[in-house]
User: What shape does this take?
Amino acid sequence: MSEPRPESQPEQQQSPPGVLGEMTPKPDHGEESYQGHGRLTGKAAVITGGDSGIGRAVAIAFAREGADVLISYLDEHDDAQDTARYVEEAGRTCVLVAGDLSDRAHAKTIIPKAVEEFGKVDILVNNAAFQMTHPTLEEVSDEEWDHTVATNLTAMFILTKDAIPHMPPGGAIINSSSVNSDMPSPDLAPYAMTKAAIANFTASMAQMYADKGIRANSVAPGPIWTPLIPATMPEEKVESFGKQVPMGRAGQPAELAPVYVLLASDEASYVSGARVAVTGGTPIL
Assistant: This one.
């Protein structure tokens, strides 16, 4: 993939969770650029939040690397169908499951559906997340706090617990953390807290299941241009989004996908317990 051209985004606003069709400029998920090399041939993957953003880029890359994919998403049906089209054009099976992962009962349907369709789960990508910008803690309602924890943490716990019995040796758990895990933005306090917990939980899983041949790693993105941004940030922050990092721009979802592919593949057979920074130059501790 050629070096992306730095491109700022104008002020814009959407209602959560946001959709691709209303974004300017459109994010790059690797639709035209990602080329697979068979790294995931014969594998079956579950990706939460796979309709758009990082999840969509990962789904496209996984499919072009040879994996069948189940995509869990909220209600962005058009975006999910479009992602499925790219997966199927790569010659792979795509299963779509809509619903709210903050609902425990729904979260518990995801892995059984994958096992029904694929017979196993080689790769689990816990990527779906909720965030909302608030300058003070007083503005965070109890309901929003509970929803953030349920979406970002409890769903990850449920899917991981359900998936492990169906993971063969060589299985991979990849959890989307964030640069906020150790450099928290005060405007994103509940979200940042969950991202630190995700990194911690992942490190525990790496140690707990190493003897079963299951690896667990997390990815810590910096500012990535996805529908979550115009749907959860004030317009003026959207316009300046990404300019604070050393590279001076927001990243594209396509720039995350190769990291997820590596961590999912057998090439990363000795990589477990890692947290990989994809931050445009901002270090993580």
Summary: The CA atoms of residues 31 and 267 lie 24 Å apart. The two ends are 28 Å apart (CA to CA). Residues 43-278 form a domain with the Rossmann fold fold (CATH 3.40.50.720). The helical segments are 53-64, 77-89, 104-118, 142-163, 189-208, 228-232, 235-240, 257-264.
